[in-house]
Backbone:
């Protein structure tokens, strides 16, 4: 197979042996694989892949066709169109996936969209629904709303019936975010003037959270799943948290157990795939690149101002 | 009645009309009333009493004998020995209490202990059990362990079967804390060397939490209910919270609704009073003062180094 490989903090595409599935795994012939902030961290030597994943092949999500199944996989998975979140190794022409982590694609969606679905929508659903317990009528503040997870979160929160305030670096994506379901969009310098919120989905980090903590309504839930643009160390006012009886939860998907990830994938198959099938959910694409252009894709990803997902595509 | 009154940030004891109970309330003839950090804040003009409480009579807890009952109170409460958490007004010879907020005293406990029970044990139980979901075998870190809430929390955590690490300003109370159930005691400068913990009960604030955040085990729960000695603004490392999938919750009792406070009192009557009756729980007293000495009691409370509760007593 062809695989993107990290060597001395640079990316190259090299030939590697095509992996065999473990007893309960499948191999997916990859057609598209999303780029995520974690890939860039991993390239820089941070955020190493968990045990059991290729150490030097990045990529947390991909979509493709099941091309091989393990001995103990008894469902008829061969040939199915699927996508999945994986611990690493997705940016290659073939990728091993736990069979219970598969998300089954709607018929109509194309490969680039499918390659950018799994990580963003799984992360956003887990954070908003499972961690924050978002409910109809909640006022939700989503920072980094133009990014991959952000555009997923805006749509999910809107479908649940929340009032969605999308925070972005500039106002240029206002129209696109409103089209996805945002009720209003603001830039960082406008956050302090907002009404109280019930849920904060923190995708940017300290620079946003330092402001957002002053907006918390009673029983507010803050879920921190990204610190990319805004820094990790925040000056948190404990008396504010106490007065609002607020909860701040940090979360990542990558470190979870195989069983936990299966539960998360089940939820996505049940709650999100039907809404993706109807077109109520979609994957906005900032830009696609060929797998061989991974280096250029990472450079593009690192730049501010894009809207939606960056996806690597494998030639048919 | 006699009441401690805040006027221009000083305390005096003055004659006031004895209050009448509301339809669902009782009046308690107070025999003892604990002093809490909130009283000192209120004296300084911070942390005002909630609506419906006397604005200038401090005191969040008291014990005594029910001396009058409201029209709609149908239980036989007159003459019962009770204690309670109230929104204010406890440091007086008479105090109005919602009938559903009463905690019923074991026969053997004396008035000073009873006057120092309600706020500390209710707060500690709510934080450890209801907020943090403490379980047998959890490793629990309790800061400010020598204070009123701290000595309650050490006992409750120990009874549940947790491993209790008590953090104190100095090592002088080591023996007393071990006698209450602490497995180990450490001073602030020793916190960084501890093993990971599942629960942090934060009674001190930023100075302790800045260290404790580095000790969080996976799924750790941090409950912040006091910032007295350590400051309110903490530099929190969001990547640590994310990696540990930790949750930080802020909480206060005073701002809760009448219904919520009834639920909390029910839990105390069911879960804690039986263990107080058997002597498994007790209220360590730092010192008692007469109600007329409230000013001296507050001064004493503000000094470091005490162990347990400061209680104002009403002459028989």
Residues:
């Amino acid at each position: 197979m062809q695989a993107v490989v990290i060597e001395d903090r640079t990316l190259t595409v090299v030939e590697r042996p095509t992996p065999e599935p473990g007893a309960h795994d499948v191999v997916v012939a990859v057609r598209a694989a999303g780029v995520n902030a974690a890939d860039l961290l991993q390239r820089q030597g941070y955020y190493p892949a968990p045990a059991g994943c290729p150490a030097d092949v990045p990529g947390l999500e991909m979509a493709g066709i099941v091309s091989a199944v393990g001995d103990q996989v008894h469902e008829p998975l061969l040939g199915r169109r699927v996508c999945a979140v994986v611990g690493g190794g997705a940016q290659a022409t073939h990728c091993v996936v736990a069979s219970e982590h598969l998300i089954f694609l709607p018929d109509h969606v194309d490969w680039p969209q499918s390659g950018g679905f799994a990580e963003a929508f799984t992360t956003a659903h887990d954070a908003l629904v499972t961690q924050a317990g978002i409910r109809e009528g909640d006022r939700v503040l989503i920072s980094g709303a133009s990014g991959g997870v952000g555009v997923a979160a805006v749509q999910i929160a809107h479908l649940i019936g929340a009032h969605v305030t999308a925070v972005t670096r500039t106002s240029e994506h206002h129209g696109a975010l409103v089209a996805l379901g945002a009720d209003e969009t603001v830039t960082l310098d406008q956050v302090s003037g907002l009404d109280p919120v019930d849920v904060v989905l923190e995708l940017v980090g300290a620079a946003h959270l330092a402001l957002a903590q002053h907006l918390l309504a009673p029983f507010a839930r803050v879920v921190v799943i990204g610190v990319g643009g805004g820094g990790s160390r925040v000056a948190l006012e404990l008396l504010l948290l106490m007065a609002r009886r607020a909860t701040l939860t940090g979360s990542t998907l990558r470190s979870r157990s195989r069983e936990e990830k299966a539960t998360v994938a089940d939820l996505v198959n049940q709650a999100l795939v039907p809404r993706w099938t109807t077109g109520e959910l979609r994957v906005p694409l900032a830009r696609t690149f060929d797998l061989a252009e991974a280096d250029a894709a990472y450079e593009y990803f690192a730049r501010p101002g894009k809207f939606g997902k960056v996806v690597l595509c494998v030639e048919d």
